[in-house]
Every structure is written in structure tokens, then in C-alpha cells.
């Protein structure tokens, strides 16, 4: 048994599914309508920047629509974090801001953020709520056509990996919620947690590609399974 002093939660598209944002690989998923190689890599952006802008502009406008709100899974994570007196980090693969809207504070967006843009010339990162187009200029350096979504594409290094690794090595409990376990290096985080003898829990609609790496598995919709799990966790001081 291990005292619970530090928790890392990895979230994927599945935690936002019940808020109305499509996942990637499920039925009706994002990749059903676009090929990854056409819209989510630096090569795609170099080949057809306006297509990539259209892909992210439509996702940004959907995220900003009034009916897209955090669901009870996001809210339960934020409530647990504020009541927990240990270390608590949400590492999300998602580029939506539903964890922020729910009130989570300690968040790492390892694949970037849909509501931020980056100038490829001066590297300034700023919030963006409207469409980005190839004709737009950078507010800071004035260069035209250099703006891109502040999002990590395939073949690009995810953000804050050192911070994430430090948290994984320290954590007593690693919880993975709503991810298919297809994309690395995120899909390898459970192996790091296991190496340091953390307890590991997968909460997902169905077994992920890495389900065998988890010590505990809970299947069902995150909006009901995660609040239940966190309520039980609040009465525990040890895991494993
Ligand atoms: C990199 C941002 C190296 C864009 C995304 C081994 C090691 C390292 C890399 C690789 C490797 N093997 C291959 C690679 C390369 C690649 C990769 O992993 N490819 C895969 C496809 C094989 N990885 C990379 O390129 C990464 N970079 O490795 O860099 C490097 C080294 C040095 C220098 C430079 C570079 C970067 C990957 C990041 C790509 N960007 N997102 C965007 O959003 O448009 S990834 C994309 O997939 C998504 O953003 C998401 O983050 C990610 C994972 O998807 P999930 O979140 O899991 O979503 P999915 O739909 O797959 O699954 C949803 C799950 O939810 C399902 O299981 C479903 O059952 C469940 N669910 C549904 N509803 C519910 C639910 N669960 C609960 N409740 C519900 N209601």
C-alpha cells in the first residue's frame, strides 16, 4: 500500500465526448472526415496551410459554441483537485479548454491549445478566438502568413515533457481517462508510472490499446465513472 500524496491524470478525447466534442478514432470521429496526414502534420501545413486552417478554424468555432460545456468528468476532476492537499496534475492530450472552464488549475496541454496561435517567425503565442488565415499578419513582428495553431502535430515534440516525466516519476497514482492509447509518447506514460511502482487506473468507454498496462480498469462513460471513482478515492489515503 502507498500513501496518496501525488496524482497524475492523463486525459484524452473521450473525456470531452459527452460535452459534444468528437473523438478522433471512434464512430463519427475527426479522422473519419479528414486524413491525419492532410491536416495534422507540419508537412500538411506546408503543403496546404489554408486546408489546415479550415480544419482548426471549424474545431475552434465548435469549441466556442454556447452548447459546448465541461461535463461532470471535467467538473469532478476540478473539485477533487481543490479538495486534495497533495500534488495533482492534469496532463491532457486535448486541445480544448474544458478542463480550464471546469476550474482545473494544474494543467499541461501536451498537444497544445486550440485557442492559441503561434507566429513561426517570432514564436509569440497568443490567444485566438476567431479564424486564422494565411493572409493574417503577426501582431508582434508584423510578418504575414506565419501564424499557425499552437497545436502539436504528428512528428512534433509534445510540450512540457520534462515536467510530465518528473510528475510521473513521483506520482503514487496515475489515472488515464478517455484515451485510446494509440498516440505516443502519451500512451507510454503508464509504463513510466508502473516503473516507479505507482498504482495505475484506466477509465475508458472500452479497453484501450494499452489496457494490459493498467493495474485497475474501469469501463463506462467518463461523465459517470470518473465522479464515482473520485468520490471513493476521497475516502482513501492509500492505493495499491
Ligand atoms: C512525437 C493535436 C517525436 C492535434 C495530436 C513511439 C514513440 C514516440 C512517437 C511515436 C511512436 N510511435 C509513433 C510515433 C509518432 C506519433 C504517434 O504516436 N503516432 C501514432 C498514430 C502511432 N507521435 C507523434 O508524432 C508525437 N510526437 O513523437 O515526436 C519527436 C522526437 C524528437 C523531436 C521531434 C519529435 C506527437 C503526437 C501528437 C499529435 N497531435 N493532437 C489535434 O488535436 O488536431 S494527437 C491526437 O490523438 C489527438 O489530439 C489526441 O490527443 C491523440 C490521442 O487520441 P485520444 O485522445 O486517445 O482520442 P481517440 O479518439 O484515439 O480515443 C478516444 C478514446 O475515448 C477511445 O478509447 C474511446 O473508447 C474513449 N471514449 C469515447 N467516449 C468516451 C470515452 N471514454 C470515456 N467516456 C466517454 N464518453
Task: Describe the SSE topology.
Layout (H helix, E strand, L loop, with lengths): L1 E2 L2 E6 L2 H4 L12 H4 L2 H4 L2 H6 L1 H15 L8 H12 L3 E6 L5 H5 L4 E3 L2 E8 L5 E3 L19 E5 L9 H10 L2 E5 L11 H7 L3 E6 L11 E4 L2 H13 L3 E2 L1
Parallel strand pairs: 2-3, 2-8, 3-4, 8-9, 9-10
Antiparallel strand pairs: 1-11, 5-6, 5-7
Bound molecules: ligand BV8.
Overview of the structural elements:
This protein is an alpha/beta fold and 240 residues long. It is built from 10 helices and 11 strands. The protein has a 6-stranded parallel β-sheet, sandwiched between helices. The chain has a 3-stranded antiparallel β-sheet with strand order 6-5-7. α6 (72-83) packs parallel to α10 and α8 packs parallel to α9. The radius of gyration is 18 Å and the shape is elongated. Residues 12-14, 17-18, 23-26, 29, 40, 93, 95, 111, 151-158, 178-180, 182-185, 204-206, 208, 221-222 line the site of ligand BV8.
Series of secondary-structure elements, N-terminal to C-terminal: EEHHHHHHEHEEEEHEHEEHE
Helix content: 25-40%
Ends distance: 5 Å
Largest sheet: 6 strands, parallel
Shape: elongated
Ions, cofactors and other ligands present here are: ligand BV8
Number of helices in the DSSP assignment: 10
From the structure above, extract its key features.
single chain; 240 residues; alpha/beta; 6-stranded parallel beta sheet; 10 helices; binds ligand BV8
Amino acid at each position: 500500500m502507498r500513501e496518496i500524496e501525488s496524482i497524475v491524470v492523463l486525459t484524452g478525447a473521450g473525456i470531452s465526448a459527452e460535452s459534444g466534442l468528437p473523438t478522433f478514432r471512434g464512430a463519427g470521429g475527426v479522422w473519419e472526415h479528414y486524413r491525419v496526414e492532410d491536416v495534422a502534420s507540419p508537412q500538411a501545413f506546408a503543403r496546404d496551410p489554408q486546408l489546415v486552417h479550415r480544419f482548426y478554424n471549424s474545431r475552434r468555432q465548435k469549441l466556442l459554441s454556447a452548447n459546448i460545456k465541461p461535463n461532470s468528468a471535467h467538473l469532478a476532476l476540478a473539485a477533487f483537485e481543490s479538495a486534495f492537499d497533495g500534488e495533482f496534475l492534469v496532463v491532457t492530450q486535448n486541445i480544448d479548454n474544458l478542463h480550464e472552464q471546469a476550474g482545473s488549475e494544474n494543467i499541461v496541454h501536451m498537444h497544445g491549445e486550440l485557442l492559441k496561435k503561434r507566429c513561426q517567425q517570432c514564436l509569440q503565442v497568443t490567444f485566438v478566438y476567431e479564424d486564422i488565415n494565411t493572409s493574417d499578419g503577426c501582431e508582434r513582428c508584423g510578418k504575414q502568413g506565419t501564424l499557425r495553431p499552437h497545436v502539436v502535430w504528428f512528428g512534433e515534440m509534445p510540450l512540457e515533457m520534462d515536467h510530465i516525466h518528473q510528475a510521473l516519476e513521483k506520482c503514487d497514482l496515475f489515472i488515464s481517462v478517455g484515451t485510446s492509447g494509440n498516440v505516443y509518447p502519451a500512451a507510454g506514460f503508464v509504463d513510466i508510472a508502473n516503473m516507479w511502482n505507482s498504482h495505475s487506473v484506466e477509465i475508458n468507454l472500452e479497453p484501450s490499446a494499452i489496457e494490459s498496462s493498467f493495474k485497475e480498469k474501469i469501463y463506462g462513460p467518463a461523465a459517470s465513472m470518473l465522479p464515482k471513482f473520485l468520490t471513493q478515492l476521497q475516502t482513501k489515503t492509500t492505493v495499491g
